[in-house]
Fold:
Amino acid sequence: MPFADFQQYIPFLIPVVIIQLILMIAALVDLLRREKTRGPKWLWALIIVLVNYIGPIIYFVAGRQDA
Structure:
């Protein structure tokens, strides 16, 4: 019964997925609104979307450039 084992983790996974989505959306919105970034915007978009959790954090720390 592998599915029964998975069901016990669902209450813990839902907040994790929600936090991931919020981070990703916030980073993408900031990326679209910002004129200048350190590197091409398309590359930052790929990093934000494909590298879970760490991608948006890396963008907020290293990718943003003050105008």
